[in-house]
Amino acid sequence: xxxxxxxxxxxxxxxxxxxEPGACGLAARAGTIxxxxxxxxxxxxxxxxxxRPPVDAPPAYKEAGPGWKVGEPRLAGxxxxxxxxxxDPDLDRLMRQIDISNQNLKASEAAxxxxxxxxxxxxxxxxxxxxxxxxxxxxxxNGTGSQTEYxxxxxxxxxxxxxxxxxxxxESASANAQASAADLAAARLSAQSELAADYFQLRVADELKxxxxxxxxxxxxxxxxxxxxYAAGTAARTDVAQAxxxxxxxxAQAINVGVQxxxxxxxxxxxxxxxxxxxxxxxxxxxLTVPTTPPGxxxxxxxxxxxxxxxxRTMAAANAQIGVAVAAFYPDLTLSxxxxxxxxxxxxxxxxxxxxWAVGPSLALTVFDAGNRSAQVEQARAAYDQDVALxxxxxxxxxxxxxxxxxxxDILARSAEVEDRAVRAGKEAERLALNQYEAGTVDYTVVITxxxxxxANQQAALNIAQSRILASVSLIAALGGGWxxxxxxxxx
Length: 492
What we know:
The protein is 58% helix and 11% strand. By secondary structure, the protein is of the alpha+beta class. Strands 1-5-4-3-2 form a five-stranded antiparallel beta sheet, covered by helices on one side.
């Protein structure tokens, strides 16, 4: 069968045809012109350039006044362990497991990787897409038969980012990835502060159990004294009953402490990604110490809080989306080209006589859309305004949290001093009442009252100590835990 004669070539300057002398030169000249134009085109980006909106930061914290004892900063570095200021090896061991096993943190880390991949996806739009294909098909020969036509071709398509739509998309995706990184840091800080709070409450529960057990032992000795006096006929039976009631009530309180302690231990296990059955924290002697945490300047808080950084980066991403929406009003210019071979015989497929090429730009512009693009621009601007408000609210909330904990630490420190004096006075009153009772100069009711007041004062002192150390943890978390916005991954 004789192959069909080749199709006539279009005139030079046409958009498609067989390879002919000068085709490569034409493509080269077009490429040269495009290379000269691209830098000028790339300089155009529609939409507003991002600038962080101002926020009202006070010159100093209200609650960090003359009464606040500012000491040497003991916060760990931005890449260190802020909890090391408490000097507890068990707490340090537990904290090290959060990054490894906490499932919420793993979810946040996966979200960050997803956001980073979306940035890479958006950035790929800046480059041409190159395709390759090969195929065969049956070709009819004027109804007399058919032959197989073989083809091998490559193509290129490149949307020229004249108005910056793709660059704005990359800018938005990059800012979202940075926001996701800040969210990851915020999730880590939240888990760490929650674990520290649970751990210290567990240790306070141990101290409360020790206090109640010691009080029960003292009450048992008082009961024995009362029984001896009753046997000697110098005390009433009601004194014995009162002493027994006080002893058993204190023992019951000591047992009930185990409920809260068990729940706190279970919560710690979940935070480090373990089933509760796999974690046991035996009681140990524990001294509650509250480290000094200088708050620094309020303006520095904007760079130290990961949630503020996340809100700011979300705002930047929304600003870039305005440019994406505005770019829809301008035409899209796409440069496409292809080069390949077609032949009725496979053996001679790749030859100059079988070459086919096509190259040319295409311009697309939406002429009428019933206000759709205008609505999208308005939506993007409203989303940005919303994110600005949320950012400023996040900053205000951060200032409030720092002020709250500064006030709490200052007030609780003064309260602890007063309560410590009450504890010492209560113990002395208890000792004197018991001595007077043994001497027969006071009723046992005086002893019961003194012992009850003394135990209540010691419990109150322990509660204040717990509140102080929890306020310390909350203050460090409110100050960012030593985190810094400089730790965010680079954008672009």
